[in-house]
Amino acid sequence: MASTNDLKNGMVLKLDGGQLWSVVEFQHVKPGKGPAFVRTKLKNVLSGKIVDKTFNAGTKVETATVDRRDMQFSYMDGDYFVFMDMQTFDQLHIDRKTVGDAANYLIEGFDATVAQHEGEVLYVELPAAVELKIKHTEPGVQGDRSTGGSKPAELETGYSIQVPLFITTDEKIKVDTRSGEYLGRVNS
User: Fold this and answer.
1) Is position 152 within any domain?
2) GO BP, one example (predicted)?
């Protein structure tokens, strides 16, 4: 248990009958009239839904212990992604639904943070940007480069994103894992 006065960003709370909510942001408000309160923005750990919730200052809330571990993606086993804990070398099978959008950017050897609560995997979090190779993209049309247009490109993971016209097949690029946007070339 913790008090709403002790809230921090990233803290995971157990609310509404055991649902896990992560604190995205919070603000202590002390109005001129009436009691102080805490305004929060909470994100459901499993569904990703974001809600605003207000608590009276000093209210007790139940916290959840979330174990975040750095793991390395090893290989696919059917519909399961197999991650290896780099300290214990234990392997963890995580289904595609739990991995979510991170699956679009995972290749063997990539590091990720795997969050667990009471033995259940909650989510897989990748670094903000990853470096991936372009598997295939059409060549840019001559004279079309000055417009700043974009074209589809298939990454080595099989996922397609939009890239600038000057990018070619087999080039290595940086991709934002949160939005799927092209961030730039990687100089080899």
Assistant:
1) yes
2) peptide biosynthetic process
